[in-house]
Design goal:
This protein is an alpha/beta fold. It has 15 helices and 8 strands.
């Protein structure tokens, strides 16, 4: 019998959730996604130091002043990892905008354009890149502009239906609801150690978004992310895309047994749902009514910003030596 991973690949597009290029080679996903935390972790590995070295030289040679050198070096690090990943995966790679721009629409737009231009200078078309933006109101507004320019966006740090609806309304290419982080919040809030897989709060959140999107014909794709165990993944078999960390990819690759589609457009079409139209005021209120989403979005932005800051601190030390 085929492994559970091979069966899952027939139901959903499997994406590798890592900056570790060697891991991507091993599991042969269609796409890959990164974030500041994953890039920072990969940057500590000896086998990827040449990507950091190249970026530092790039920033030093082209930037005017230390701040511009740091900005250009950081962007080049992200693109260098993305470029290496694209040598392996046949599809797309997601590259994240600085989390510190999560509440800065114009800043996020500029950063997205800059990353795409840097990829283009390496001969990589924008069709193979997804620009990752936090699913804040400001991030959603940035996605609306970028999508109209043909720059595809992956809306990350998503924890609620309000965020999902906002992203779909502006035509975002992809959303990445965070399953495991939702589970973490509910386990702490409700004092539980586990939930039955079908009742996992993160699974239920993605199921709700999937049903809403398919019911009302939105083209925005759903890529469930941030898993804590393989049961969560298998409960979402049939989701458009599923991004999985190497450890769980290995568990699925080693496991046998039947994998069934748990999410299908037919099931969604049969759901009784009301279509919701969101402007900024209604978005903010609907989002605010979900304390889990408020907590986890803020926490995620802080965490990604902190890890990017760690990476930049190391880059800055080396740039100052070169001055």
């Amino acid at each position: 019998m085929a492994s559970k991973l091979d069966q899952l690949k027939k139901l959903s597009t499997v994406v590798s959730d890592t900056g570790d290029i060697d891991a991507i080679k091993q599991y042969k996903p269609q796409d890959a996604t990164t974030n500041p935390s994953l890039i920072y972790a990969a940057s500590q590995m000896p086998q990827y130091q040449h990507l950091i070295d190249d970026a530092i030289e790039f920033g030093h040679q082209r930037g005017v002043g230390i701040e511009e050198q740091l900005r250009m070096t950081t962007e080049k690090v992200m693109v260098n990892f993305g470029k290496e990943i694209l040598r392996i995966v046949p599809g797309r790679v997601s590259t994240e905008v600085d989390a510190r721009l999560s509440f800065d629409t114009e800043g996020a737009i500029r950063k997205g354009r800059s990353l795409i231009a840097l990829y283009a200078s390496e001969g990589i078309p924008k069709e193979r890149i997804l620009i990752k933006l936090a699913s804040t109101w400001e991030g959603i507004c940035a996605a609306e502009v970028l999508e109209k320019e043909g720059i595809h966006c992956n809306m990350t740090l998503m924890f609620s239906l309000a965020q999902a609806i906002g992203c779909a309304q502006v035509g975002a290419t992809l959303i990445s609801p965070f399953v495991g982080r939702i589970l973490d919040w509910y386990k702490k809030s409700e004092g539980k150690t586990s939930y039955p897989p079908a009742d996992d709060p993160g699974v239920k959140s993605v199921r709700e978004i999937y049903q809403y999107y398919k019911k009302f014909g939105y083209k925005t794709q759903i890529m469930s992310a941030s898993f804590r165990n393989v049961d969560e993944i298998l409960e979402l078999a049939g989701c458009d895309l599923i991004t999985i960390a190497p450890k769980l990819l290995q568990e699925l690759s080693d496991a046998t047994g039947t994998v069934e589609a748990k999410l299908t457009p037919k099931m969604a079409a049969e759901c009784k749902l009301e279509k919701i139209s969101l402007d900024e005021k209604r978005f903010r209120w609907m989002f605010n009514e979900n304390p889990m989403a408020v907590d986890k979005l803020a926490e995620g932005i802080r965490h990604f910003a902190a890890d990017l800051g760690k990476l930049q601190a190391e880059i800055l030390k080396r740039l100052k030596v070169m001055v």
